[in-house]
Design a protein that fits this description.
370 residues; 64% helix; mainly alpha
Length: 370
Amino acid sequence: MSPLAQGAPLATIAFHARRCFWLLLPLALWTGSAALGGPGERPATPPGGEEPIAQLIEQLGHPEYYTRQQAQKELSRLGFEAFDALSAAATHDDLEIAARARYLLRLMQVEWTHDDDPPHVKTLLENYGWLQPEDRRERIEQMARLSDAAGAAALCRMVRFEQSSDLSKLAATELIAEYASGKSPAADVSRTIREALRESRRPGAQWLLAWAEHGRDHETLTEHFARFIDEEQAWLERQGASANTDALAALLRFQVAWLERLDRRAPAIDAMRRLIALEDGEVEDLKKLFAWLIAHRAWPLVDELVARFEAQITTTPMLLYLLAEAQAEQGETDAAEQTAEQALALRQGASRGWLNERRLLALELWRRRR
């Protein structure tokens, strides 16, 4: 019910009107103060110093309209100096602060392509700023798979300036994931990370900086990532059930790899168990996790996964085949044969497409040398 309908005092009504009035302002009121340069272009600091950015962020939700507008104008002038703080404020509990932060972020035009980018990197970055989130995700994944870490600088750019927190974190975890089995980054990649991200406080930037600094010291690295994992877990809990857990899952996989290199099996198992707890039963995700647990020979956790998702596993041929593979790896030959027969008996897909589904299943098994 609106304040007017409730018979609220005129002062209360005026406060609410002032608080949302900025949404109705024509963009023409935003003159040169909203124009922002590329990442690296910083406006000159006026005499007398600046108000701290954190204070300006809080003023975006001030009860007085003039104070909110002045804070917004100053943050707009600061441009990319305020990017990290605005990115964090985009999910602020105060809806006014969050809305204004997102608005200011939309004004920022990032130059995704640099002159010194290799041609194939420029191709992947073409029109990146105009792509939908799923298409951006695909470009990030392709960038990470380029040989000789050719996309490292571009990925750092995405970590630093991608407005989506999920995609910023994805760029960071994809870069680390390319170094299999917990290996440390190459010297040139570490240098690129330090140069590109040393001033950034975004989570993905902190992950990469710790990895670049301590990649050869797994003991220290696991200590840093234990904290990052707890911070990401806490952040997800604040966001609610709809939050994306991909970044946390990636951090846990990295932690497992580094712990295993230290021969610390017990904490590695604990990290794996936390990874299982993130699963919500999506078949494709279960396939990846099942295969990952088999690769790590984490047989007790395979049993836990089977017990938790029995309904999905017993009705999905590939999951049953993965269970058969796990049983065979443990020497349970008879049980593995029975499970494989159970998988074979399941009919794939709709009546018209079952044969093609069976062919795709055969290809998947062939890739696993089964």
